[in-house]
Amino acid sequence: MKHPTLVCLVAGMVMCWTLHAQTECRSAASEKYALGQFDEASRILKTCLPAIKNDNEKFQVHKLLAKIYIANDYYDSAAYYIREMLRTKPEYTPDPSEEPLTFVERFNEVKETFKHENLTDEIVTTATKRAQRSSDAPTTIYVRTREQILMRGYRNLIDLLEDIPEIEIQKNSISEFRNVVSIRGIAGNEKFIIMLDGVRITPPTGDPYTLGTNYSLVNAKRVEVILGPSSALYGVDAFSGIINIITLDATDVRRYNLSTSFGAYNTGDHSALLAASPARDVSLTLAGQYYHSAEPDFYNLYKSEFAWYREQYLPEGLVDVNGEPKQVSGVGDRKFEMPTFSYFVSGKLIFKDFEIGASRNMERHCSSVSVDPRYTLYTRDAFIAQTFQSIYARHTVTADDGRWALKSYLTSGQGALDPDSKFMNRYTEYEKGYKYQFSRSHKIEEQYERDLFRSTTMICGVSFEDLNALPKTADLPFRYDVKTPAAGQDIYYLNTDTVDAYGRSLRIAQDFHYLNYQNYGAYVQFNSTLVPFTELTLGGRFDHNTRFGGVFSPRLGVVVTPVPKIKAKLLFGTAFLAPSPWKAYSTFGSFEPAVTNGSVTGLQSPFFHIPNTALRPERLASLEGGAVVFLNTRLTVSVDAYYNRISDLINIQSPAGSGTFKGVDVTYVEKAINQGLAHMYGGAFNISSVHQIAPHNLNLQLSYAHTNGDIAGKPLTLTARHTVKASVDWSVHRFSLSTRLIFRTQSNSVITDAEGNFLQNNAFAVVNAFARYRLVENEMFDLGATLRFSNLTNARYYNAAAGQDSFYATPQDPIRIEGGISLGFR
Q1: Judging by DSSP bridges, how do beta strands 241-247 and 192-196 pair with one another?
Q2: Do residues 139 and 228 make contact, with C-beta atoms less than 8 angstroms apart?
Q3: In terms of domains, do 64 and 161 share one?
């Protein structure tokens, strides 16, 4: 370095300016506090707080905020900031001769309880619809905070869920939805609900959906992941779990936050988060994220799996048609392409007790993902694009004494396939087979909360939901016109627009099933601590659906605290999963001419998946128990065990042998059926540890999960029996590094061999890492640099397939490196 003295001088000036600006901020707030202008003092401090990284200065700001809230008689809010003080300086004790007496008394009260609190025991709201410590929730719950999201570089929900114990993700597993999530052995993205600030942002009709880069965490304050049935509060489809993304308010972040990153395979990820508080009691946040990637060139990375592409399709244009090579035409240059595009936008406005919000997400990916290249075309024209959007309004009325509250909700959600979505595979005879699907929901809900006694609270509510759907169509010969009724579009099944030897038309018109139905719900829940050292949760919900009738879902949970550092849990819960329009009405297959003595005599079909409108809801009964042990304030050990029993399980790929469809002989007919019983059992062991050895901060997590069971007497699919996950988060001064390990044993795919045995992927281990360095940080702005490593060791590994034409073990991404910058300023 040519001028080290100059560099050190500039760095020193920047550091001094930063500390001076932060001190000036606190001084201005202190003046307002001394004048009794508490709201203005609070506003100044909350504006400065996100930029403060110095622990001593942060401690002083938290201290002043605690005093302000005590002066306003907001003791719960004051307790929050006192806890933040104790996280920074656990041994601090206020001097009664220098501090207000009310502050000293409140501080000592909180400090006494804080001795028994753990730094990993977060406040949650999703488990019982009321605020409580995660250890007090009767369910198994995992929380990831904003700090962890930034530390580990989680960009989207898939990144985060991959590290959650008892959750398994089969990536690149099925062409239509790309990734498949299993929770405690229950596989399927449609079997849990994703919410944004308590509002559902997955298809309201319960259809499977794309879960990839489209569910962004750009504005996430924390993410609460509930494992197990939750229909007793949330109704239909809260089957295997609930995921709630709680978003930031304007006071939580700087006014403008921008980030961008670029990496291998022409990958880019760009996001923006804007926050404003233009007036008192007003908070406005806007967020957006856009992702694009050409994706890895799998045909070069996995030469054995893509040998057909390189040796048959690329030079000759050959594909497999009923076991015989056949040349396809009109495809173009046969270039291998499987790009991904996605975006997410969200906005939230809060004014006093009124809140409105909206979000929209979309992902477009190759509709050949995971499929053997003998049976599909890896071309840019073959893609699936799915969009979901929601809007909501929420109003809360709270009694002056705080003993009751009435919450009113209006929500509307809409999901659709882009009408340009299409498959180009053996079911479409390698022609463009277009798809379309649509769903919409309008819902109103009233929820009443009341403190019945000092130790008992009640939550009850009613809801009404009106739903409309056009189930996913069969392969269409041309693009569906969303502005014209299907009856006016003359849509026929692929390859039926022909004539027989006598000139008679063989065209078969497609069926379209427009659905309109309603769901009525009512629920009640009691939480009581009447029995010493015990918290009881008792509730249930009744839903009546005009498609499949009524269902009652009860829940009973007990949390016992025999000593302050141990909490034992026991929960019995039930849930139901509606037979979605996608499962009940899905249709796909192919027709071809039937030829006798060289003449076309009609049509025939080698395969068709046909509708089954008589499907019944799946029902889940679950029993789980566990314990949380706080060995000290920085070390937690937890264990849980569960047993799930599912009745009327829907198998969407149940063979029915030969048959007919639309009067045409079909060699192999398939449809969804209620197959019978499934059983899952297992458990998990977790260790979480937080260490602060100035200036180093270390967060360690280790988990082991075991899952076993059967589906109608056969082994579980898409679920590993043994899973180990570990993470190390380390930060020192402005630098942080997060390293995460995932190890899984074999998982059964849905594909079987000739003897009917499920084919498996091999056990694997994958390491991911994320590094972040804050280049500049002060009151006005901060600038950071990031470096991301996915599959750090460049392992060649596979996940289990969820689609019938897929590789039974689907190839996964090689090492992917991305570098980026982030900028935040007022």
Answers
A1: parallel
A2: yes
A3: no
Q: Among 59, 87, 115, which residue terminates a domain?
A: 115
Tell me: pLDDT of 118 over 70: no
Say yes or no: 253 and 357 in one domain: yes
Looking at residue 54, which CATH number applies to its domain? 1.25.40.10
Query: Are 692 and 770 found together in one domain?
Result: yes
HEC assignment per residue over 557-600: EEEEEEECCEEEEEEEEEEEECCCHHHHHCCEEEEEEEEECCEE
Is the peptide bond prior to 695 cis by the omega test (within 30 degrees of 0)? yes
What's the pLDDT at 267? Answer: 98
Q: Does 163 fall in a domain?
A: yes
The tokens for 127 are 């488990």
Whole-number Cα distances in Å, 335 to 379, 380, 410, 477? 7, 9, 48, 24
User: Which CATH number belongs to the domain containing residue 370 in this structure?
Assistant: 2.40.170.20
What are the DSSP E strand ranges found in 664-695?
664-693
Q: So what's the pLDDT on residue 489?
A: 94
pTM (2 decimals)?
0.87
For residue 417, tell me if it sits in a domain.
yes
pLDDT by residue (tens digit) across 65-112?
A: 988 888 887 777 788 888 888 877 766 888 888 888 889 888 888 887
pLDDT in tens, 514-573: 999 999 999 999 999 888 899 999 999 999 999 989 999 999 999 999 998 899 999 999
**715 belongs to a structural domain:** yes
Q: Are residues 35 and 154 in the same domain?
A: no
Task: Compute the distance between CA of residue 667 and CA of residue 529 in angstroms, rounded to an integer.
Answer: 63
Whether the CB-CB separation of 335 and 309 falls below 8 Å is answered with no
Alpha-carbon span 652 to 673, nearest angstrom: 7
- Please provide the average confidence, as pLDDT, over all residues in the chain: 91
Tens of pLDDT along 270-323? 999 999 988 888 999 999 999 999 999 999 999 999 999 999 999 999 998 878
Residue 41 belongs to what domain range? 4-115
In a domain, 328, yes or no: no
Residue 777 and residue 629 share a domain: yes
pLDDT band at 9 (very low <50, low <70, confident <90, very high): very low
Co-location of 804 and 706 in the same domain: yes
CB 447 within 8 A of CB 407: yes
Q: Are 287 and 272 in contact (CB under 8 A)?
A: yes
Q: How many CB atoms lie within 10 A of CB 35?
A: 10
d(CA 688, CA 692): 14
Poorest-confidence range of 107-121, 158-172, 629-643? Answer: 107-121
Residues 756 and 617 in one domain: yes
Number of compact structural domains in the chain? 2
What value does the mean pLDDT take over residues 168-183? Answer: 96
Q: Do 67 and 166 lie in a common domain?
A: no
Q: What is the DSSP letter of 191?
A: G
Q: What is the pairing mode between strands 549-563 and 132-133?
A: unpaired
- Residue 464: strand, helix, or coil: strand
Q: Spell 6-18 as b/e; 16+ CB within 10 A means b.
A: eeeeeeeeeeeeb
Question: Residue 186 CB: number of other CB atoms within 10 A?
Answer: 29
Calpha distance 333→322 (Å, rounded): 24
Pull the structure tokens for residue 22: 């932060």
